[in-house]
């Protein structure tokens, strides 16, 4: 007898909506995070998974064996409890971890290590122009390939330390791209794996970078206590001026989120002062992006964290102007400036910024920023701005979601 799709769908929805309650987007992120790294590369991203979850819950389709395993991992329920008659015989279940032996190929050598480093550099260049969305899977593939060869011992002994260092760097790049693609669980998993590799390789320089990534992500997720603990623990030792500046940026944002405004702005001021001497011979190669505009942006965001949106606007505007030649960063800056302008009700400038943002859509794939823009355009429409601003915001919202920003109704 064929499985009752409607019954299975109702059960899946019941489980999702039971305490602690997950939205479909939250469940999609959990399903991705529960997958083994090699399998996650080939999984759809969160928006596509949300659509799939809707179809499963409506009874249109049944999850295939891969997703039944993931549902069980996420919910803690057995496949029988979740799917009952829908479950296929164990022999037909597609394993998430296959025998990887044939995939090892020849042992990694110095040429393979160099190819990993070149791939990391190329991905960084692509991200600066195009954003992370379309290149994240490639970055994860590079990292997982290197990580797997290390884990299985498929490398020549002479290159072990250099190989671990290159793999750690590849993991950091993948973690950043996952962060920008708003795959936060994937980012956290990748950076923790990368951190372990860099530490084992004795690459203290990259380890510091990876720890600042964890602090950055903690700030993004509004976990300031975690960000503050990470940064405070790193100030010991002989740090270069630009690394010190980055730590003060992370610490300043955490302090602002904790409501300690005076300390936050003083700390961000020290970060800016540390950059006055320019690049020195002591600065790490990865610190090239720590510029005055970066400090300005985070100082603006700290004012926003403190609820002082009027003070945030000029700082975010200046940062956006300074980074006009860096497409992904400029897109991010403009959307955050638009957010600040909406908070203060400056609709004249907001219309100008929103017009520019609308022109960038489709050129930069940065889900972290685009998700903010999606929420922001809905809020702008509902704030009753001038009709030209509302119409433009509604058009942008529609292009992002297929929904009218004011009514929430899908437009056909």
UniProtKB/TrEMBL annotation:
<dbReference type="InterPro" id="IPR011990">
    <property type="entry name" value="TPR-like_helical_dom_sf"/>
</dbReference>
<dbReference type="InterPro" id="IPR001387">
    <property type="entry name" value="Cro/C1-type_HTH"/>
</dbReference>
<dbReference type="InterPro" id="IPR010982">
    <property type="entry name" value="Lambda_DNA-bd_dom_sf"/>
</dbReference>
<protein>
    <submittedName>
        <fullName>Helix-turn-helix transcriptional regulator</fullName>
    </submittedName>
</protein>
